[in-house]
Design a protein that fits this description.
With about 325 residues, this protein is of the alpha/beta class. Helix content is about 25%, strand content about 30%. Bound molecules: zinc ion (ZN).
């Protein structure tokens, strides 16, 4: 089950309602962050998320509204006696992580490991993986090296033990584990394959664009996703060299065939949330359009997406 909490949905300048960018992802034992704008650690406290549990932070680019929260956050981890290493991924991560660790009179009692993410080749790259999911990145189009990220749960098999499986003499327990591992089993001299008795359950896919102009790579990394979180700095159609407009963002979502499009990173000029919702409804899309708010929680369950809130706005 993938859980996502928007800890910050504003852009360059925070507002009373919207903090700088940060998105928490939780899957199994893994707690991760996509971006870490100023004040992220406090937003985590409000939302009930334990800041110490995060092991991997993925920074889309090194504009302060996406990383300035790291300075205080790593020092808090140190105060709390952290010993486990912390991994910070991002384009040119080595240079910027070294700079952050060099600020002020302190030194961490744990390892902070920079993991550079490629931003020069136009291709999707796997940058982190576990048994159950992978995280990929792809370069996008901003004024500085910037990448989009994607979480992909691995596909899994649903074995029909009582139906199709019964005909082959399949039983719950170790047999199922071996079948999933090997792809086949031999039961009483008869070979049974996964395809004979199981169907594939597609894993959940959620992508995050980072700050970007409209570009094909955002569409590529968000292809057929359950959720496409996308930079929607400007709601109206204005010329800008750093971000797309709402119309362009929805168009990217349509091309990607995303099931849900979550708009985020709003300029402070849009103080009325309902007004953004109204504007978003003007554009044609098959996707469910979500206007993200700070503390909004998205949970992907087998039966579908649940949208709720955590923390101070409960
Ligand atoms: Zn930004």
């Amino acid at each position: 089950m993938l859980e996502i909490v928007f800890l910050g949905t504003g852009s360059g300048i925070p507002t009373r309602e919207r903090n700088h960018s940060a998105i928490w992802l939780h899957y199994g034992e893994e707690n991760m962050l996509w971006d870490c704008g100023e004040g992220t650690q406090r937003q985590m406290l409000f939302s009930g998320i334990n800041p110490m549990k995060i092991d991997n932070i993925f920074i889309t680019h090194w504009h302060a509204d996406h990383w300035a929260g790291l300075i205080g956050y790593v020092q808090t981890m140190n105060f709390e006696g952290r010993k486990r290493p912390l991994y910070i991924h991002g384009p040119e991560a080595e240079r910027f992580v070294a700079d952050i660790l060099d600020l002020g009179h302190w030194g961490p009692g744990f390892k902070v490991i920079a993991k550079p993410v490629q931003y020069e080749k136009d291709e999707e790259t796997t940058i982190y993986e576990s048994e159950d999911f992978i995280i990929t990145s792809i370069p996008v189009k901003h004024t500085v090296p910037t990448v989009a990220y994607c979480f992909k749960e691995r596909d899994s098999w649903n074995v029909d033990v009582d139906g199709k499986g019964k005909r082959f003499g399949l039983k719950e327990g170790r047999m199922i584990g071996n079948l999933k591992k090997e792809g086949f089993l031999v039961i009483k001299d008869r070979k049974v394959t996964l395809e004979d008795v199981a169907t594939v359950r597609k894993g959940v896919k959620a992508a995050y664009s980072g700050d970007t102009m409209p570009c094909d790579n955002v569409i590529e990394i968000s292809k057929d996703s359950d959720l496409m979180i996308v930079d929607s700095t400007f709601v109206e159609n204005i010329e800008d060299r750093m971000h797309g407009t709402l119309e362009e963002v929805i168009e990217m979502g349509n091309k990607a065939n995303a099931k849900n499009i979550a708009l985020t990173h709003f300029s402070r000029r849009y103080s009325d949330h309902d007004e953004i919702v109204k504007e978003a409804k003007k554009y044609k899309t098959k996707a469910n359009v979500i206007v993200a708010e700070d503390m909004m929680k998205l949970v992907f369950r087998k039966k579908g997406l649940e949208i709720g809130k955590v923390g101070m706005k409960d």
